[in-house]
Write a structure and sequence with these properties.
Oligomer: single chain
Helix content: 40-55%
Order of helices and strands: EHEHEHEEEHE
Number of strands: 7
Radius of gyration: 13 Å
Shape: globular
């Protein structure tokens, strides 16, 4: 079904829910999982490597970490295009248990600006 899955994370507990979901899906599909972090270079490298290592151990999937600087939605779409991903997984934006989707949110931008399948995981 999927051979390359891209998932975005900023290292927060809520974003790790989306990573875990993407890793489980990658395991079921025998897909390659691309973990993308778009923050400051030093923080992003440590975050992407740790998250990728954890996903590899827990779900036994091949993980490729991508360290990028830039606006997160743009970075996710660019990486997905670069590797010809089948699916982009992002976490929802949620405040106090209520789902919010402001016009500029990462899930909203990825869903509307990418020509690829997008899975938005409810993260709390």
């Amino acid at each position: 079904m999927y051979s390359r899955i891209v998932v975005g994370t900023n290292g927060s507990d809520r974003s790790l829910i989306a990573v875990d979901h993407a890793a489980r899906l990658a395991a079921v599909c025998s897909a390659e999982l691309h973990v993308v972090t778009a923050t400051s270079p030093t923080d992003a490298l440590a975050t992407a490597v740790k998250i990728g290592h954890d996903a590899t151990k827990r779900h036994r999937v091949r993980v490729v970490e991508h360290l990028q600087t830039g606006e997160p939605a743009t970075v996710l779409i660019d990486v997905a295009d670069e590797i010809d991903a089948d699916l982009i997984v992002v976490g929802s934006n949620s405040v106090a248990g209520r789902l919010q989707r402001p016009a500029g949110s990462v899930p909203n931008r990825v869903a509307h600006d990418s020509g690829r399948a997008v899975l938005i995981v409810h993260t709390g």
